[in-house]
Specification:
Length: 128
């Protein structure tokens, strides 16, 4: 004897909405992102500039040292490092996500929403 599955109307609506959202949102084409150039403005804004940013894939991580240049006249560059989770992308390349940065002198640390895509030695960033 066959089995019958019952789906309530709210559950069917939720499943249909989730399916439409998945279909309606196209995958990002990371190869179309602009090439990362130094310096660039920090995701925090405020005129803070990031420089010397050259991420490389190192196993399951992407890593780079970098400097932070504050907008205050005469301020010295701050030396930092960041590491991301390295996620292989179908079609080639690695997406670097979930960034965690720290000051080289141990005075500060945090996370960043910034992402980079690395493929064939070319580093790309999301469109501004």
């Amino acid at each position: 004897m066959g089995r019958f599955w019952f789906v309530t109307a709210p559950a069917a609506f939720a499943m249909g909405t989730a399916l439409l959202a998945a279909v309606a949102r196209p995958a990002e084409d990371y190869t179309q992102w602009p090439v990362l150039t130094n310096p660039f403005e920090s995701t925090g804004g405020g005129g803070v500039m990031i420089d010397d940013y050259h991420p490389v894939v190192d196993g399951v991580l992407c890593r780079t040292d970098f400097t932070v240049r504050l907008p205050a006249p005469g301020s010295e560059p701050l030396r930092n490092e960041v590491e991301f989770d390295a996620v292989p992308i179908t079609g080639g390349g690695v997406l670097c996500i979930n960034g965690r940065w720290r000051a080289k002198d141990g005075s500060a640390s945090g996370i960043t929403p910034f992402r980079v895509f690395i493929k064939d030695g070319i580093v790309r960033r999301p469109p501004a």
